[in-house]
Input
Amino acid sequence: MTKNIIEVHNLVKKFGTFTAVNDITFDVKEGEILGFLGPNGAGKTTTIQMLLGLLTPTSGSILYFGRDLMSYREEIMETINFSSTYTNLPWYLSVKENLTYLSYLYNIKDRKKRISELVEIFKLDPILKKSIGQLSAGQMTRVNIAKAFLNSPKILLLDEPTASLDPDVATYIREFIQSERERFNISILFTSHNMSEVEELCERIIFINNGEIIANDKPENLAKSIEFSHVELLLEKDLKKLEEFCNKQHLTFRIFGKKQIRIDVREKNIAEFLRNLTEQKIIYDEISIDKPSLEDYFLQMSQKKI
Amino acid sequence: MKLHRIYAIILRNLYSFKHSYDKMSDAFYWPLLDLLLWGLTSSYINQSSGGQTNILLLVISGIVFWLIFWRAQYEICMGLLDELWNKNMINLFITPLKFWEWVTAWLFMGVAKGAMSFLFASGVAILLYQTNVFTYGFTLIPYMLLLLLSGWWVGFLITSILMRFGSKVQTLAWSMPWVFAPFSAIYYPVSSLPQWAQNVAHFLPTSYVFEGMREVLKTGHFNTQNFLFALLLNCIYLALALITIRFSFARVLKNGITKLY
Output
């Protein structure tokens, strides 16, 4: 049986009368990539800050390797790292200087070798002597991720690690994260607003909203829980007619341009819906049917908050 | 406490010092300007008074010694402010770094940069005014220790306020030490102050330093009793300041480090 690397029990964080995180319990298993999703203000960042020891919980406990974070912070932090697009490194310092002083903080034995490895992996050589302030957003993200791997962590918390990266670099970084996970059995807690990335990387997803966990399942199961498929039609002339038909049938739809429409239809009703279109003599030129995705799940669950 | 982590923070600060013209000017430019302005002024007063008292040495000593106090407190405040400006607190505190290791690195930076500024200003004083602050001999050492301790507790107090209100009150780091200056009797005796100000001065260890220095200059006598009393005051204030800053940091963790930005 795979052991739990992180265990969170009944975690609560209150700011005055506002409850940001309300009694959440979950775990992260060894070698697992866990997606931690939720809309803005759901309590993700607050939870991550508590997991990193940057914020004291109001109640509840956080265990790493079965040891309490508060009591064994020093030992635990040696095995963890974190990367976020939204944190900065000292502005004036060069990339090399940042990696060097951080390598002392983690007491890395062969500092030069480890930094050279990361420079090669993340292609940092051309920017090594540049100060952080001179880097582009994409370069900064690469440096942040390199920093996160500096201490060869057993646990990684990645907050939107590929945001602001070019697609090819983002793919490269995702592949690197996957390969490192496989090589060293790293456990990863991963947040992203790119749902296809989450579907690609994560074995399990925790969805949090209003400070509570509302789902904890595999990405495919979460997507399946959405009953509606998207039927997308391209019509030369009957768009108005179809719009009226959808209104009568109380179907949710969205129009793109002058010819394209996307209609949400229950999967079991798709055949009947298409038959009705034929009966109504609504002629379409192209059709595509998309099964519900994790993105649909995300949108539906996020709307519940509103 | 682990030395490698203290060294890491010192290294981070040294890198920052190397790249920052602001920090360079704090170390060299401002002390030089102080020495030029007040040195030339007191040189004129010295000549006008017929050179009966060595005003130049008194003023230059005041400037140079005040630097030790100022640098010690400033480095502590800058230890926090620099991380706030760079939004680097998260990167530091997701490592095994302990709060007291971070603080120890600030203290070291205060001593190192204080010594650097002191030596620079002393050198400039010799060069420009042929005035040697090393005239005080070995009594320099206890006075320097007292000023260092005072700088530390003032620095911790200001930093505690910064931890409570964030960088929006950052101006305290530059301005608050000067609140202590008039009562520290840097350039004039405590007895010349109005009574209420004398009462304040009696509770400030820095006033005993500058009074003591003048006594050494005048009589050659080192006042051990005053030194011990100033040391006692410093120890009490430092202990209180350390407790305050520890509580302030606990409060930061309660509200979240990012709330400081």
